[in-house]
Amino acid sequence: PWLDGCRVSIAPIRYGAGVKGKVTMAMSCGLPVVATGIAVEGIHARDGFDIRVADSAEAFADAVVSVHEDEALWNRLSHNALATMQEHFSFTAARRAIRRIFDL
Fold first, then answer.
1. CATH architecture label of 9-101
2. 76 with 84: CB under 8 angstroms?
3. How many Å apart are CA 19 and CA 4, to the nearest integer?
């Protein structure tokens, strides 16, 4: 419910480690994300395909505006983000990884 009224999720994270839950949560809801390179580490996301990545303040602001205003870009990022999350972070993906690890 917190993301229902949002048009774009932003993750201007400058430091950190591991998968950033705020990014995967938004992507799994089909909400387009604009993030820094640090914010997308470990997420399997690709700039312009399922997320927008920008590291300078100007590029970040430009990316937020373009995602907010460009309906085709918004739809593409939303659709592809859902597919990326399904492929890499779903129960099916976890089951597949566990089976591969344990040779099941």
1. 3-Layer(aba) Sandwich (3.40)
2. no
3. 23
Q: What is the rounded (10 degree) CA torsion for 94, 95, 96, 101?
A: 90
Token match 């373009």: residue?
Answer: 66
Q: What is the pLDDT along the chain (104 residues), one digit of tens a residue?
A: 789 899 999 999 998 877 789 999 999 999 999 999 999 998 999 999 999 999 999 999 999 999 999 999 999 999 999 999 999 888 898 899 899 999 87
User: Phi, psi at residue 53, to the nearest 5°?
Assistant: -115, 130
Q: How far apart are CA 104 and CA 93, in angstroms?
A: 14
Report the alpha-carbon angle 9-18-98, nearest 5.
Answer: 110
What are the residue ranges spanned by the domains of the chain? 9-101
